[in-house]
């Protein structure tokens, strides 16, 4: 019997693929928090982490423009600075959650008793 040229040793068999999908499904069912609600909560957290610094920057810029008028707009400059700070903050939260998701130990690593 000839070896299949399409299948390399790194390609998982059908049984391995089914087993991997089944273990992922069981792992998802064992989670304490529903994934949909977690995702919506994370979207809210990311939204507020961008909106709050942006609005604070705009408010501070308006105050500076009113009390210390000059040749340039503090409002626009601080609005962009707040937006940048908010986006960096959101990126931090997303990368932290992504790292936490990928650091969860699998059942293979824990060992079955």
Automatic annotation (TrEMBL):
Region (Disordered): 1-25
Keyword Transmembrane carried by entry: yes
Membrane-crossing residue ranges in chain numbering: 35-64, 76-94
Keyword set, alphabetical order: Membrane, Transmembrane, Transmembrane helix
Stored InterPro entries: ATPase_gene1 (IPR011744), ATPase_put (IPR032820)
Source organism, top-level taxon: Bacteria
Name this polypeptide is given: AtpZ/AtpI family protein
Organism name: Pseudomonas violetae
